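INFO batch 0412 | record 1 of 1 | parsing
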Amino acid sequence: MKNMIKSAWLRQKKSEGKKIMYILPVITITISIFLARFNWQQIAFNWWEFMLIPLLISTCSAFLVSMENKKNRHGLLSIVVDKKKLWLSEVFTCTLMFFLSMFIFFIIVYIISVIIGGQYGVFLIFITTFLLFITFVWQIPLWMYLSEYIGAIPSIFIGVIVNMFSTVEISLTSYWWFPFAIHGRINCALLGIMPNGLNTDNSVYTNHKIIVPSVLISLFLYVFITLITSMIFKKKEV
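INFO prediction complete | emitting tokens
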């Protein structure tokens, strides 16, 4: 499995998905600083969670699968005995790419905060970034699966729309635990940022009790969807 992940990582070395993973965090923070000198962190986290992570995670998942399909997975389908491991290696590769993108976002926010200041401390920046990673990561096997069977463009479109709609319409309701809405509630609970970008000190929205169930739901979905999609992929014909 380790060698398969290394192989999948090398195959994505010059992919468009990998470039997007590295570029989007930089663009997000740069524009935020340009638009608002004193509350740039608030704008950066709001845009990052609301629009750009959904675009990032669905695009990179779709591009990875699209590239693998175009090259017929470099002939691996015909020689790999356990196709389930091949799928898992691709899911873990995309997960690692997403983790690195979130890490880049955190590092840049931290460095800029040290230089010009910001409203959030380093621990809050770190824990929010980490929890956004956890509450989004389960979508990787989902969008990869959809891209495999309905194509990249429809998958990306569905991913962006569903996430943005859920954040706006569901994240601040009693149904915040709906998987696509959880990340919006995390931003609100930790940073006090509502989906519209405004601040809130409403104790209902900033209650930290939602954190543990959010993490548990997200991790369960990541494991569950990864295993289910790997079993379906195992039956894929060459």
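INFO post-check: The CA atoms of residues 107 and 207 lie 27 Å apart.
INFO record closed
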